[in-house]
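Weekly modeling sync, notes
Attendees: S.R. (lead), two postdocs, one rotation student

Agenda item 3: backlog of single-chain predictions. S.R. asked that every request posted to the team notebook include the full sequence so nobody has to chase files. The rotation student volunteered to paste the first one in as an example of the format we agreed on. Action items at the bottom.

Example entry:
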Amino acid sequence: MTLILTVANSRGVYQSSDYQLTDADTGAPVSDRAGSKQLEVGFKGLHLQLAFTGIAAVGRGSSAQRTIDWLSADLKALPHDSKLQEICNSLSKRATGAMKLHGPRGVLTLVLAVAVIDEPFRVAVISNTRWGQQPPQAKNYFDIAIHTIAKPFHLISGCRDSVPRHERHRLKALARAADSPPGETLDALTAINAVAARNSRGRVSEGCWVTSQVADGRVRRTATRNVGEHGGSIPQLLHGLDLSDWIKKNFRAAPGKEIRLVQSAGAILGPGDGVALPPPEGDPRKFTLSGSSVTGMLRSPSGQHCASIEIVQLDCDITARRNEEVTIPFAQVRLSGTHPICPDCPRPLFPWPSISLALAIDGAAVPRGWEHTIGYWTETGAHHVEIPRSSRGIRGLAFLGADDELVIATVSDSQFAWGETEDGPTAMLQARVHWRTRLDGTRG
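Predicted structure, as returned to the notebook:
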């Protein structure tokens, strides 16, 4: 069983859900990993946080499937422009089929906290649970209730009896406190969940996943926290891709460690939203970017020298007005391979090694210079090199004043491949250079 706390008002919608999974037959705790009962998903102009309480897996034995997995699969299969009612209908249909095997014990309640650009917040509850019965019993159908938030709203789902009366009053007060900073609301939900955990006889964990979705004009800003920094990961779905799964497959954890999501933040924007860039101003200014060259060896996982790379930072004269962006030739890359070619080795996990070069503006050295990250591998007798796009902002150097900055960003990822009998490629990396007013409003 899970405890899900939801509060909402005109300024935002907030949710906490604990991590505890218990055995349906014995009630004994079996897991407290993050992501067993929570996920987040983005659709076109719509963002939702989902938590559920009830059956954690459907089926028996080797055919059992975790509830979080089939919920994720159903949501990933939906069109990106799906509306909330369509999402709820699909989840309800899928849940009805999944719970049939479990009869009256197949209780399941989904709670969706929903934000849509320039629309009121909503909370959707999809449930087959008769909460008035002890223990709760399942109906043979799912109800869908979509609450459009026009006044303070609060909801306790799952282990309701673990939340003492004074904490329920506190939850109501949170819903009424529309002007409370989002961080304080998340702190309060964390504290209420902790009190409930101590009162739950092991059915609720003190660790929990807390989320906020708040209004900033038309824009909707999101934030999440993994309270207790529990292992596991929250599925983060976008365009049919689970971003958390992609990170686990492409990044290498430190020895003895596990990659975990501690917190996140984001925003949902529509056309014309976000920070408006100021127009170009003042007279054109001429300045020079210059740098150094560096040569490095590209190695296999076993340390064998397989290829070499040379990157030459180009000298470039730039003429631009403040708040104007220009594209320049930034660096030249030369690649060469060893003979014979090294045995095949897989595309490496992140983080990749990097090469550092000196960088200067009008002869003034930029602290830490410039770094290019390099990925190298061999596949089916060919060398492969990838240089991801990179960027950095520079302040308080050369001609830059107290309220402006120079932002340099390579235009795109660069990918190269060549065979054992071929000469290594040579290529030009381009970069966008933007001399602009600081968008964060700081000075110094």
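Discussion: group reviewed the output briefly. The chain has two domains: 3-268, 281-437.
Action items: rotation student to repeat for the remaining queue; S.R. to check formatting next week.
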